[in-house]
Amino acid sequence: MKQKLKEYSAALHGGQANVLDHGDEEKLIQSTTEDLQSNIEEAEVSFWNKTLALQRIQLMSALRNKAHQDDKDSGLILETVKCIVLLSQTIMKYQQNIIIGSEVNWAEDPSLKKIFLQLEKNVQLQ
């Protein structure tokens, strides 16, 4: 596509406006438009992912600061975090048991193998 754009640009600057017929020109414009729309979508997703990551970091920082204050609210925050960690561990263990109990050969399927090994890694980390 970049090559086509360069050729088209060179043709226009060189006075050869008829290098591309109308159909080819429409295809080039359509292709370029689709590529640009795809790039915009990727940039938006990347922006929102980075925004969410920043917000999570800010929230964790605020929770850490609050937890160090040793007041009633900080105690509630710590208890809630403990419950969340326990629930997460339980969910991951049950997910592994479901995979094992399903008798699906996860080792032969690359996508299932990746999921299973990640679950195993998450359980071991906690």
UniProtKB/TrEMBL annotation:
- Family statement drawn from the similarity comment of this UniProt entry: Belongs to the CENP-H/MCM16 family.
What the entry lists under InterPro entries is as follows:
CENP-H (IPR040034), CENP-H_C (IPR008426)
Domain Centromere protein H C-terminal intervals: 24-96
Pfam families associated with the record? CENP-H
The source's domain of life comes to Eukaryota
Keywords, ordered alphabetically? Centromere, Chromosome, Kinetochore, Nucleus
Q: What is this protein called?
A: Centromere protein H C-terminal domain-containing protein
Q: Where is this protein chiefly located?
A: nucleus
Q: Where in the cell is it found?
A: Chromosome, Centromere, Kinetochore; Nucleus
